[in-house]
Design a protein that fits this description.
InterPro entries: FAR (IPR026055), FAR_C (IPR033640), FAR_NAD-bd (IPR013120). Catalyzes the reduction of fatty acyl-CoA to fatty alcohols. One of its GO terms (molecular function) is alcohol-forming very long-chain fatty acyl-CoA reductase activity. This protein is an alpha/beta fold and about 500 residues long. It contains 17 helices and 13 strands. The strands form four sheets. The protein has a seven-stranded parallel beta sheet with strand order 3-2-1-4-5-7-11, with helices on both faces. Helix 2 links the parallel strand 1 and strand 2. The longest helix has 25 residues. The mean pLDDT is about 90.
Length: about 500
Protein backbone atom coordinates (compact mmCIF):
# COMPACT_ATOMS: atom_id res chain seq x y z
CA UNK A 1 0.00 0.00 0.00
CA UNK A 2 1.56 3.24 -1.17
CA UNK A 3 0.04 6.68 -0.62
CA UNK A 4 2.79 8.74 -2.23
CA UNK A 5 1.22 8.93 -5.68
CA UNK A 6 4.08 10.80 -7.35
CA UNK A 7 6.57 8.20 -6.15
CA UNK A 8 4.18 5.38 -7.12
CA UNK A 9 3.94 6.65 -10.72
CA UNK A 10 7.72 6.81 -11.14
CA UNK A 11 8.97 4.14 -13.58
CA UNK A 12 5.47 2.66 -13.93
CA UNK A 13 4.20 1.38 -17.26
CA UNK A 14 0.50 2.02 -17.64
CA UNK A 15 -1.95 1.01 -20.35
CA UNK A 16 -5.00 3.28 -20.79
CA UNK A 17 -7.97 2.39 -23.02
CA UNK A 18 -10.34 5.00 -24.45
CA UNK A 19 -7.43 7.43 -24.39
CA UNK A 20 -9.10 10.17 -26.47
CA UNK A 21 -12.08 10.37 -24.09
CA UNK A 22 -12.65 13.35 -21.79
CA UNK A 23 -11.73 11.68 -18.47
CA UNK A 24 -8.84 9.62 -19.88
CA UNK A 25 -7.18 12.77 -21.22
CA UNK A 26 -7.45 14.52 -17.84
CA UNK A 27 -5.93 11.39 -16.23
CA UNK A 28 -3.04 11.18 -18.75
CA UNK A 29 -2.29 14.93 -18.56
CA UNK A 30 -2.09 14.75 -14.75
CA UNK A 31 0.38 11.87 -14.83
CA UNK A 32 2.65 13.56 -17.39
CA UNK A 33 2.53 16.86 -15.47
CA UNK A 34 3.27 15.54 -11.96
CA UNK A 35 5.51 12.59 -12.86
CA UNK A 36 7.43 12.97 -16.13
CA UNK A 37 9.54 10.00 -14.97
CA UNK A 38 6.68 7.60 -15.55
CA UNK A 39 8.19 4.79 -17.64
CA UNK A 40 5.63 4.48 -20.45
CA UNK A 41 1.99 5.24 -21.18
CA UNK A 42 0.49 2.89 -23.75
CA UNK A 43 -2.60 4.72 -24.99
CA UNK A 44 -5.15 2.58 -26.82
CA UNK A 45 -7.42 4.34 -29.33
CA UNK A 46 -9.58 3.14 -32.20
CA UNK A 47 -7.62 3.67 -35.41
CA UNK A 48 -6.65 1.77 -38.57
CA UNK A 49 -3.00 1.47 -37.51
CA UNK A 50 -0.51 2.84 -34.97
CA UNK A 51 0.37 5.82 -37.16
CA UNK A 52 -3.33 6.76 -37.38
CA UNK A 53 -3.55 6.28 -33.60
CA UNK A 54 -0.63 8.68 -33.17
CA UNK A 55 -2.34 11.28 -35.35
CA UNK A 56 -5.64 10.88 -33.47
CA UNK A 57 -3.95 11.36 -30.12
CA UNK A 58 -2.12 14.43 -31.37
CA UNK A 59 -5.23 16.16 -32.77
CA UNK A 60 -7.78 14.97 -30.18
CA UNK A 61 -5.59 15.12 -27.06
CA UNK A 62 -2.15 16.73 -27.05
CA UNK A 63 -3.04 19.76 -29.21
CA UNK A 64 -6.06 20.58 -27.04
CA UNK A 65 -6.18 23.43 -24.49
CA UNK A 66 -6.01 20.77 -21.74
CA UNK A 67 -2.27 20.43 -22.38
CA UNK A 68 -1.53 24.18 -22.45
CA UNK A 69 -0.12 24.22 -18.88
CA UNK A 70 2.34 21.44 -19.74
CA UNK A 71 3.17 23.28 -22.98
CA UNK A 72 3.76 26.55 -21.11
CA UNK A 73 5.86 24.82 -18.41
CA UNK A 74 8.05 22.82 -20.79
CA UNK A 75 7.87 24.66 -24.11
CA UNK A 76 6.85 22.97 -27.37
CA UNK A 77 10.15 21.19 -27.97
CA UNK A 78 10.45 19.63 -24.51
CA UNK A 79 6.77 18.64 -24.47
CA UNK A 80 7.15 16.91 -27.85
CA UNK A 81 10.24 15.11 -26.55
CA UNK A 82 8.36 14.01 -23.42
CA UNK A 83 5.45 12.71 -25.50
CA UNK A 84 7.69 10.85 -27.95
CA UNK A 85 9.67 9.23 -25.09
CA UNK A 86 6.82 8.40 -22.74
CA UNK A 87 3.67 7.93 -24.86
CA UNK A 88 3.13 4.94 -27.14
CA UNK A 89 0.00 5.23 -29.31
CA UNK A 90 -1.67 1.85 -29.88
CA UNK A 91 -4.38 1.16 -32.46
CA UNK A 92 -6.92 -1.09 -30.79
CA UNK A 93 -10.54 -1.81 -29.97
CA UNK A 94 -11.64 -3.29 -26.64
CA UNK A 95 -14.66 -4.90 -28.33
CA UNK A 96 -12.22 -7.35 -29.98
CA UNK A 97 -9.98 -10.15 -28.72
CA UNK A 98 -6.44 -9.02 -27.78
CA UNK A 99 -8.01 -5.51 -27.63
CA UNK A 100 -7.89 -5.46 -31.42
CA UNK A 101 -4.08 -5.06 -31.46
CA UNK A 102 -2.97 -6.31 -34.90
CA UNK A 103 0.75 -5.90 -34.20
CA UNK A 104 1.53 -9.14 -32.32
CA UNK A 105 5.12 -8.06 -31.50
CA UNK A 106 3.88 -4.83 -29.90
CA UNK A 107 1.18 -6.77 -28.05
CA UNK A 108 3.73 -9.21 -26.59
CA UNK A 109 6.03 -6.33 -25.67
CA UNK A 110 3.16 -4.58 -23.85
CA UNK A 111 2.25 -7.77 -21.98
CA UNK A 112 5.83 -8.04 -20.73
CA UNK A 113 5.98 -4.43 -19.50
CA UNK A 114 2.60 -3.33 -18.14
CA UNK A 115 2.23 -2.64 -14.40
CA UNK A 116 -1.25 -1.07 -14.35
CA UNK A 117 -4.19 -1.41 -16.76
CA UNK A 118 -6.75 1.42 -16.73
CA UNK A 119 -10.00 0.84 -18.64
CA UNK A 120 -11.79 4.09 -19.44
CA UNK A 121 -13.14 3.05 -22.86
CA UNK A 122 -16.94 3.10 -23.03
CA UNK A 123 -19.87 4.14 -25.14
CA UNK A 124 -21.83 6.60 -23.00
CA UNK A 125 -24.89 7.08 -25.22
CA UNK A 126 -27.90 6.29 -23.04
CA UNK A 127 -29.74 4.63 -25.95
CA UNK A 128 -26.81 3.09 -27.84
CA UNK A 129 -27.38 0.10 -30.15
CA UNK A 130 -27.52 -3.01 -27.96
CA UNK A 131 -24.87 -4.85 -29.98
CA UNK A 132 -22.47 -1.90 -29.77
CA UNK A 133 -23.06 -1.27 -26.05
CA UNK A 134 -22.70 -4.96 -25.13
CA UNK A 135 -19.55 -5.18 -27.27
CA UNK A 136 -17.83 -2.24 -25.54
CA UNK A 137 -19.31 -1.77 -22.05
CA UNK A 138 -19.92 -5.41 -21.15
CA UNK A 139 -17.74 -7.84 -23.11
CA UNK A 140 -15.19 -5.11 -23.86
CA UNK A 141 -14.55 -4.86 -20.11
CA UNK A 142 -14.02 -8.65 -20.03
CA UNK A 143 -11.60 -8.41 -22.97
CA UNK A 144 -9.57 -5.80 -21.03
CA UNK A 145 -9.52 -8.11 -17.99
CA UNK A 146 -8.36 -11.07 -20.08
CA UNK A 147 -5.63 -8.90 -21.60
CA UNK A 148 -4.54 -7.68 -18.14
CA UNK A 149 -4.29 -11.29 -16.91
CA UNK A 150 -1.75 -11.98 -19.67
CA UNK A 151 0.42 -9.05 -18.53
CA UNK A 152 3.11 -10.83 -16.49
CA UNK A 153 3.83 -7.84 -14.22
CA UNK A 154 0.25 -6.55 -13.90
CA UNK A 155 -0.40 -5.25 -10.38
CA UNK A 156 -3.93 -3.89 -10.90
CA UNK A 157 -6.87 -3.42 -13.23
CA UNK A 158 -8.58 -0.09 -12.61
CA UNK A 159 -11.98 0.01 -14.34
CA UNK A 160 -14.02 3.21 -14.71
CA UNK A 161 -17.75 2.53 -14.45
CA UNK A 162 -20.56 4.91 -13.44
CA UNK A 163 -22.36 5.43 -10.13
CA UNK A 164 -25.67 5.03 -11.98
CA UNK A 165 -25.20 1.26 -12.36
CA UNK A 166 -27.49 1.28 -9.30
CA UNK A 167 -30.50 1.78 -11.60
CA UNK A 168 -33.30 3.92 -10.16
CA UNK A 169 -33.10 2.80 -6.54
CA UNK A 170 -33.81 5.48 -3.90
CA UNK A 171 -32.05 5.98 -0.54
CA UNK A 172 -28.40 5.47 0.41
CA UNK A 173 -26.76 3.40 -2.34
CA UNK A 174 -23.99 1.09 -1.12
CA UNK A 175 -20.41 1.23 -2.33
CA UNK A 176 -20.08 -2.48 -3.03
CA UNK A 177 -19.53 -4.83 -5.97
CA UNK A 178 -22.37 -6.59 -7.78
CA UNK A 179 -22.99 -10.24 -7.04
CA UNK A 180 -24.31 -11.54 -10.36
CA UNK A 181 -26.24 -14.46 -8.89
CA UNK A 182 -28.31 -12.01 -6.80
CA UNK A 183 -29.46 -9.88 -9.75
CA UNK A 184 -33.16 -10.46 -10.35
CA UNK A 185 -35.86 -8.11 -11.59
CA UNK A 186 -39.09 -7.43 -9.66
CA UNK A 187 -40.69 -10.53 -11.22
CA UNK A 188 -37.84 -12.76 -10.04
CA UNK A 189 -36.21 -13.09 -13.50
CA UNK A 190 -32.50 -13.75 -13.08
CA UNK A 191 -30.06 -11.88 -15.30
CA UNK A 192 -28.05 -14.14 -17.63
CA UNK A 193 -25.38 -12.13 -19.46
CA UNK A 194 -24.57 -14.86 -21.99
CA UNK A 195 -28.28 -15.12 -22.80
CA UNK A 196 -28.35 -11.34 -23.38
CA UNK A 197 -25.54 -11.69 -25.92
CA UNK A 198 -27.32 -14.64 -27.56
CA UNK A 199 -30.61 -12.68 -27.83
CA UNK A 200 -28.74 -9.68 -29.25
CA UNK A 201 -27.08 -11.81 -31.96
CA UNK A 202 -30.40 -13.48 -32.74
CA UNK A 203 -32.14 -10.12 -33.20
CA UNK A 204 -29.31 -8.82 -35.38
CA UNK A 205 -29.44 -11.97 -37.54
CA UNK A 206 -33.23 -11.59 -38.01
CA UNK A 207 -32.86 -7.94 -39.07
CA UNK A 208 -30.12 -8.77 -41.57
CA UNK A 209 -32.15 -11.66 -43.00
CA UNK A 210 -35.06 -9.24 -43.51
CA UNK A 211 -32.78 -7.01 -45.63
CA UNK A 212 -33.42 -4.04 -43.34
CA UNK A 213 -31.59 -0.81 -44.08
CA UNK A 214 -28.68 0.17 -41.79
CA UNK A 215 -30.84 2.97 -40.40
CA UNK A 216 -33.67 0.55 -39.54
CA UNK A 217 -31.22 -1.91 -37.96
CA UNK A 218 -29.78 0.90 -35.81
CA UNK A 219 -33.23 2.05 -34.65
CA UNK A 220 -34.32 -1.51 -33.93
CA UNK A 221 -31.14 -2.38 -31.98
CA UNK A 222 -31.43 0.85 -29.96
CA UNK A 223 -35.02 0.00 -29.07
CA UNK A 224 -34.06 -3.59 -28.22
CA UNK A 225 -31.33 -2.39 -25.84
CA UNK A 226 -33.76 -0.10 -23.98
CA UNK A 227 -36.33 -2.94 -23.76
CA UNK A 228 -33.78 -5.38 -22.28
CA UNK A 229 -32.52 -2.75 -19.81
CA UNK A 230 -36.01 -1.92 -18.58
CA UNK A 231 -36.99 -5.60 -18.35
CA UNK A 232 -34.13 -6.16 -15.88
CA UNK A 233 -34.72 -2.94 -13.91
CA UNK A 234 -32.27 -0.44 -15.43
CA UNK A 235 -33.42 2.83 -17.05
CA UNK A 236 -31.29 2.68 -20.20
CA UNK A 237 -28.85 0.62 -22.26
CA UNK A 238 -25.77 2.51 -21.07
CA UNK A 239 -26.09 1.82 -17.32
CA UNK A 240 -27.40 -1.73 -17.95
CA UNK A 241 -24.38 -2.72 -20.06
CA UNK A 242 -21.96 -0.98 -17.67
CA UNK A 243 -23.51 -2.96 -14.79
CA UNK A 244 -23.03 -6.24 -16.66
CA UNK A 245 -19.41 -5.22 -17.38
CA UNK A 246 -18.80 -4.84 -13.63
CA UNK A 247 -20.41 -8.23 -12.98
CA UNK A 248 -18.17 -10.02 -15.50
CA UNK A 249 -15.05 -8.38 -14.04
CA UNK A 250 -16.03 -9.48 -10.52
CA UNK A 251 -16.73 -13.05 -11.64
CA UNK A 252 -13.59 -13.53 -13.75
CA UNK A 253 -10.90 -11.45 -11.99
CA UNK A 254 -9.30 -14.45 -10.21
CA UNK A 255 -6.19 -13.14 -8.37
CA UNK A 256 -5.82 -9.87 -10.26
CA UNK A 257 -6.41 -6.85 -7.97
CA UNK A 258 -9.50 -5.01 -9.24
CA UNK A 259 -10.59 -1.45 -8.44
CA UNK A 260 -13.85 -0.08 -9.82
CA UNK A 261 -14.29 3.69 -9.91
CA UNK A 262 -17.93 4.81 -10.09
CA UNK A 263 -18.08 8.55 -10.79
CA UNK A 264 -21.38 10.43 -10.78
CA UNK A 265 -21.95 13.18 -13.40
CA UNK A 266 -18.47 14.33 -14.43
CA UNK A 267 -18.15 18.08 -14.95
CA UNK A 268 -15.40 20.55 -15.91
CA UNK A 269 -12.11 20.66 -14.01
CA UNK A 270 -12.20 22.41 -10.64
CA UNK A 271 -8.55 23.50 -10.61
CA UNK A 272 -6.22 21.28 -12.65
CA UNK A 273 -4.54 21.76 -14.98
CA UNK A 274 -6.66 24.96 -14.91
CA UNK A 275 -10.27 25.62 -13.86
CA UNK A 276 -13.16 25.01 -16.24
CA UNK A 277 -11.74 22.74 -18.93
CA UNK A 278 -14.42 20.56 -20.49
CA UNK A 279 -15.11 18.85 -23.78
CA UNK A 280 -18.55 18.27 -25.28
CA UNK A 281 -21.94 18.72 -23.64
CA UNK A 282 -22.12 16.26 -20.77
CA UNK A 283 -25.45 15.29 -19.13
CA UNK A 284 -26.69 18.36 -17.21
CA UNK A 285 -24.70 20.68 -19.52
CA UNK A 286 -27.18 20.20 -22.39
CA UNK A 287 -29.86 21.66 -20.13
CA UNK A 288 -27.61 24.56 -18.99
CA UNK A 289 -26.78 25.62 -22.55
CA UNK A 290 -30.35 25.16 -23.85
CA UNK A 291 -31.57 27.36 -20.98
CA UNK A 292 -28.90 30.02 -21.62
CA UNK A 293 -29.89 30.11 -25.31
CA UNK A 294 -33.49 30.78 -24.30
CA UNK A 295 -34.65 27.49 -25.87
CA UNK A 296 -35.53 25.70 -22.62
CA UNK A 297 -38.07 27.50 -20.46
CA UNK A 298 -39.32 24.47 -18.51
CA UNK A 299 -37.92 21.09 -17.59
CA UNK A 300 -38.85 17.88 -15.81
CA UNK A 301 -37.09 18.20 -12.44
CA UNK A 302 -37.89 17.76 -8.77
CA UNK A 303 -36.51 20.93 -7.13
CA UNK A 304 -35.52 18.92 -4.04
CA UNK A 305 -33.65 16.18 -5.93
CA UNK A 306 -29.88 16.28 -5.54
CA UNK A 307 -27.77 16.79 -8.66
CA UNK A 308 -24.68 14.68 -8.04
CA UNK A 309 -21.76 16.24 -9.92
CA UNK A 310 -18.02 15.83 -9.55
CA UNK A 311 -15.23 17.72 -11.40
CA UNK A 312 -13.09 15.65 -13.79
CA UNK A 313 -9.77 16.44 -12.09
CA UNK A 314 -11.12 15.07 -8.80
CA UNK A 315 -12.08 11.80 -10.52
CA UNK A 316 -8.58 11.54 -12.04
CA UNK A 317 -7.04 12.17 -8.59
CA UNK A 318 -9.22 9.43 -7.06
CA UNK A 319 -8.16 7.03 -9.84
CA UNK A 320 -4.44 7.64 -9.25
CA UNK A 321 -4.78 7.44 -5.45
CA UNK A 322 -6.78 4.18 -5.64
CA UNK A 323 -4.19 2.68 -8.00
CA UNK A 324 -1.31 3.68 -5.67
CA UNK A 325 -3.20 2.24 -2.68
CA UNK A 326 -4.16 -1.15 -4.12
CA UNK A 327 -1.54 -2.06 -6.74
CA UNK A 328 -0.07 -5.46 -5.91
CA UNK A 329 -2.55 -6.07 -3.07
CA UNK A 330 -4.11 -9.43 -2.37
CA UNK A 331 -7.85 -10.21 -2.66
CA UNK A 332 -8.55 -6.69 -3.90
CA UNK A 333 -12.04 -6.00 -5.26
CA UNK A 334 -12.75 -2.43 -4.24
CA UNK A 335 -15.48 -0.05 -5.34
CA UNK A 336 -15.14 3.73 -5.00
CA UNK A 337 -18.17 5.93 -5.63
CA UNK A 338 -16.77 9.34 -6.51
CA UNK A 339 -19.45 12.02 -6.19
CA UNK A 340 -20.81 14.79 -3.99
CA UNK A 341 -24.39 13.90 -2.98
CA UNK A 342 -23.46 12.41 0.39
CA UNK A 343 -20.95 14.99 1.64
CA UNK A 344 -21.73 18.20 -0.27
CA UNK A 345 -25.17 18.03 -1.95
CA UNK A 346 -26.67 20.65 -4.26
CA UNK A 347 -30.32 20.45 -5.39
CA UNK A 348 -31.79 21.20 -8.81
CA UNK A 349 -33.74 24.02 -7.17
CA UNK A 350 -30.47 25.66 -6.10
CA UNK A 351 -28.98 25.15 -9.56
CA UNK A 352 -32.01 26.86 -11.15
CA UNK A 353 -31.35 29.99 -9.03
CA UNK A 354 -27.65 29.97 -9.93
CA UNK A 355 -28.37 29.60 -13.67
CA UNK A 356 -30.89 32.44 -13.60
CA UNK A 357 -28.37 34.64 -11.79
CA UNK A 358 -25.56 33.78 -14.26
CA UNK A 359 -27.47 34.20 -17.52
CA UNK A 360 -29.21 37.38 -16.32
CA UNK A 361 -25.80 39.00 -15.80
CA UNK A 362 -23.98 37.21 -18.66
CA UNK A 363 -26.53 36.93 -21.46
CA UNK A 364 -25.63 34.82 -24.48
CA UNK A 365 -26.14 36.33 -27.93
CA UNK A 366 -28.45 34.99 -30.62
CA UNK A 367 -27.28 34.44 -34.21
CA UNK A 368 -28.26 37.99 -35.14
CA UNK A 369 -26.17 39.35 -32.24
CA UNK A 370 -29.01 40.38 -29.93
CA UNK A 371 -28.81 39.53 -26.22
CA UNK A 372 -30.93 36.57 -25.12
CA UNK A 373 -33.15 37.29 -22.11
CA UNK A 374 -33.88 34.35 -19.81
CA UNK A 375 -36.72 33.89 -17.34
CA UNK A 376 -36.56 31.64 -14.31
CA UNK A 377 -36.94 28.06 -15.54
CA UNK A 378 -40.23 26.36 -14.69
CA UNK A 379 -39.49 23.02 -12.98
CA UNK A 380 -42.19 20.34 -13.19
CA UNK A 381 -41.88 17.39 -10.78
CA UNK A 382 -43.58 14.49 -12.66
CA UNK A 383 -43.60 13.19 -16.24
CA UNK A 384 -47.43 13.23 -16.34
CA UNK A 385 -47.56 16.92 -15.38
CA UNK A 386 -44.74 17.76 -17.79
CA UNK A 387 -46.54 16.07 -20.72
CA UNK A 388 -49.76 17.89 -19.83
CA UNK A 389 -47.91 21.23 -19.61
CA UNK A 390 -46.25 20.69 -23.02
CA UNK A 391 -49.58 19.78 -24.62
CA UNK A 392 -51.46 22.81 -23.26
CA UNK A 393 -48.62 25.31 -23.62
CA UNK A 394 -47.18 24.24 -26.97
CA UNK A 395 -48.85 21.30 -28.76
CA UNK A 396 -52.41 22.70 -28.91
CA UNK A 397 -51.43 26.21 -30.09
CA UNK A 398 -49.19 24.49 -32.65
CA UNK A 399 -52.19 22.82 -34.29
CA UNK A 400 -53.53 26.30 -35.15
CA UNK A 401 -50.17 27.25 -36.67
CA UNK A 402 -50.32 24.10 -38.83
CA UNK A 403 -53.35 25.55 -40.59
CA UNK A 404 -51.65 28.81 -41.54
CA UNK A 405 -47.90 28.13 -41.87
CA UNK A 406 -46.80 24.53 -42.38
CA UNK A 407 -43.04 25.39 -42.50
CA UNK A 408 -43.10 27.26 -39.18
CA UNK A 409 -45.20 24.44 -37.74
CA UNK A 410 -42.63 21.81 -38.74
CA UNK A 411 -39.73 23.84 -37.27
CA UNK A 412 -41.49 24.41 -33.95
CA UNK A 413 -42.74 20.82 -33.79
CA UNK A 414 -39.18 19.59 -34.31
CA UNK A 415 -37.99 21.73 -31.38
CA UNK A 416 -40.76 20.37 -29.11
CA UNK A 417 -39.93 16.79 -30.13
CA UNK A 418 -36.25 17.36 -29.31
CA UNK A 419 -37.16 18.72 -25.84
CA UNK A 420 -39.38 15.66 -25.20
CA UNK A 421 -36.59 13.30 -26.30
CA UNK A 422 -34.14 15.08 -23.98
CA UNK A 423 -36.60 14.90 -21.09
CA UNK A 424 -37.32 11.18 -21.58
CA UNK A 425 -33.61 10.33 -21.65
CA UNK A 426 -32.85 12.38 -18.53
CA UNK A 427 -35.99 11.44 -16.58
CA UNK A 428 -34.26 8.73 -14.46
CA UNK A 429 -31.59 11.23 -13.35
CA UNK A 430 -33.51 14.46 -12.81
CA UNK A 431 -36.07 12.63 -10.66
CA UNK A 432 -33.41 10.44 -9.01
CA UNK A 433 -33.89 9.96 -5.24
CA UNK A 434 -30.66 8.14 -4.45
CA UNK A 435 -27.63 9.33 -2.47
CA UNK A 436 -24.32 7.59 -3.14
CA UNK A 437 -22.60 6.17 -0.09
CA UNK A 438 -18.92 7.09 -0.45
CA UNK A 439 -17.31 5.90 2.77
CA UNK A 440 -14.60 3.97 0.86
CA UNK A 441 -13.78 7.09 -1.16
CA UNK A 442 -13.86 9.26 1.99
CA UNK A 443 -11.44 6.89 3.79
CA UNK A 444 -9.16 6.86 0.74
CA UNK A 445 -9.15 10.67 0.67
CA UNK A 446 -8.59 11.01 4.44
CA UNK A 447 -5.66 8.56 4.41
CA UNK A 448 -4.16 10.41 1.43
CA UNK A 449 -4.39 13.78 3.20
CA UNK A 450 -2.83 12.36 6.41
CA UNK A 451 0.04 10.86 4.42
CA UNK A 452 0.67 14.10 2.53
CA UNK A 453 0.62 16.26 5.67
CA UNK A 454 2.95 13.79 7.44
CA UNK A 455 5.43 14.11 4.58
CA UNK A 456 4.86 17.88 4.32
CA UNK A 457 3.72 17.43 0.72
CA UNK A 458 1.39 19.81 -1.04
CA UNK A 459 -2.09 18.44 -1.65
CA UNK A 460 -1.63 17.25 -5.23
CA UNK A 461 -4.34 14.60 -5.46
CA UNK A 462 -7.38 16.07 -3.71
CA UNK A 463 -10.83 14.63 -4.39
CA UNK A 464 -12.70 15.78 -1.30
CA UNK A 465 -16.09 17.10 -2.54
CA UNK A 466 -16.50 19.21 0.63
CA UNK A 467 -13.97 21.74 -0.73
CA UNK A 468 -16.31 22.67 -3.61
CA UNK A 469 -18.33 25.85 -3.25
CA UNK A 470 -21.03 25.01 -5.79
CA UNK A 471 -22.22 28.56 -6.42
CA UNK A 472 -18.70 29.82 -7.01
CA UNK A 473 -17.82 26.75 -9.12
CA UNK A 474 -20.87 27.01 -11.38
CA UNK A 475 -20.76 30.81 -11.82
CA UNK A 476 -17.00 31.33 -12.10
CA UNK A 477 -15.69 28.01 -13.38
CA UNK A 478 -18.13 25.55 -14.94
CA UNK A 479 -20.52 27.71 -16.99
CA UNK A 480 -17.73 30.01 -18.29
CA UNK A 481 -15.81 26.81 -19.17
CA UNK A 482 -18.79 25.50 -21.12
CA UNK A 483 -19.08 28.77 -23.04
CA UNK A 484 -15.34 28.95 -23.77
CA UNK A 485 -14.51 25.32 -24.56
CA UNK A 486 -17.79 23.99 -25.96
CA UNK A 487 -20.12 26.74 -27.15
CA UNK A 488 -17.54 28.94 -28.89
CA UNK A 489 -16.03 25.92 -30.66
Amino acid sequence: MQFNCVHFLQNKTILVTGATGFLAKVFVEKILRVQPNVNKLYLVVRASDNEAAKKRLRTEAFEKDLFKVLRENLGDEKLNTLLSEKVVPVAGDIAMDHLGMKDSKLRECIQQEIDIVVNVAATTNFDERYDVSLGINTFGALNVLNFAKKCVKAQLLLHVSTAYVCGEKPGLLPEKPFIMEEIRNENGLQLDINLERKLMKQRLKELNEQDCSEEDITLSMKKFGMERAKLHGWPNTYVFTKSMGEMLLGNHKENLPLVIIRPTMITSTLSEPFPGWIEGLRTVDSVIIAYGKGVLKCFLVDVNSVCDMIPADMVANAMITAAATHAGGSNVHMVYQVGSSNQNPITYGEIREILFCFFTKNSLRSRNGSLITVTKMKLIPTMALFSLYMTLRYKLPLQLLKLVDIIKYKNKNRKIDSVMRLVKLYEPYVLFKGIFDDRNTKNLCTNKKEEESKNSETLMFDFDPKVINWRNYLINVHIPGLITHVLKK
